């Protein structure tokens, strides 16, 4: 597509926050300044677009944000943006400020919004994958995923100390919505006794067998990682089922929850976010619209948003096999 002349870019973060979003915003804004563009921060995601919570950004706004968790632009899940009236209000506000392109940092819902907006109003938009869930196609890793895995693993290490001291069986629930990426990494990285992910069914009887075998093998501690979106329920439900079958076990449940969304981004996420931030601005200038910038095999790749959001990225079969080998 023939590139439109772009002078003013608006950047926003939307949906669940993720460590590295600040680093991505900084890179977008810095790259914009490098190319002599005016940069605007849209606060609270699409809500801010609708409510005209839009401010011109200066260099000082992005000083010392790269290393901070969360998003200084704040984030929200906007119900109003899902309505045509909400999107019209948002468009009118962008026009008022003369914003002629957008960088949307968020997960599948946020990128869907950017796609719809581009279809309806023709505002050039590029998405950046910002979610701890890693459930977007078109990139090997999403911004925030690596940090979330590190956070989960560090927390599980601590749980292991107390689990070992008391000979207890722990069920630890990790986030990921309906994807098992955090779970499988946490399982491999923390030597879990088993990892339950939404993509693979593990019958309760099999888990019981595995736990019995580990007892026989005199394993010191048992930690089972449960992805939150599993069809047989979360950690609490699974623990209750196991308790019925293994009543002599001392069982505890820990739900890691939003802990996984916070914290200073890892070096991996900082670099990923920085590369993608620059790619977003350069992509817009080259006329790449309605796409998500990602990194595959260390190369920047632009994938149509409609393809990136399709729910077809799956936990690697090999990762699952490795987790199984290492837990027996
Ligand atoms: O998409 C990121 C995520 O943290 C998911 O892993 C989780 O299911 C969801 O967001 C939680 O959303 P909220 O913060 O709105 O409760």
TrEMBL record:
Active-site residues, Swiss-Prot/TrEMBL: 133 (proton acceptor)
Localization per record: Cytoplasm
Protein name as it appears in the record: ATP-dependent 6-phosphofructokinase
Gene3D superfamilies (UniProt xref): 3.40.50.450, Phosphofructokinase domain (3.40.50.460)
Molecular function GO terms recorded: 6-phosphofructokinase activity; AMP binding; ATP binding; fructose-6-phosphate binding; identical protein binding; metal ion binding; monosaccharide binding
Residues given in the record as substrate binding sites: 131-133, 168, 175-177, 228, 252, 258-261
Role: Catalyzes the phosphorylation of D-fructose 6-phosphate to fructose 1,6-bisphosphate by ATP, the first committing step of glycolysis.
Gene that encodes the chain: pfkA
Cofactor (UniProt): Mg(2+)
EC number: 2.7.1.11
Pfam families per record: PFK (PF00365)
Subunit structure: Homotetramer.
Binding site residues for ATP: 16, 77-78, 107-110
Domain Phosphofructokinase: 8-283
Sorted UniProt keywords: Allosteric enzyme, ATP-binding, Cytoplasm, Glycolysis, Kinase, Magnesium, Metal-binding, Nucleotide-binding, Transferase
Binding site for ADP: 26-30, 160, 219-221
Location (main, coarse): cytoplasm
Family named by the database record: Belongs to the phosphofructokinase type A (PFKA) family. ATP-dependent PFK group I subfamily. Prokaryotic clade 'B1' sub-subfamily.
Keyword Membrane: no
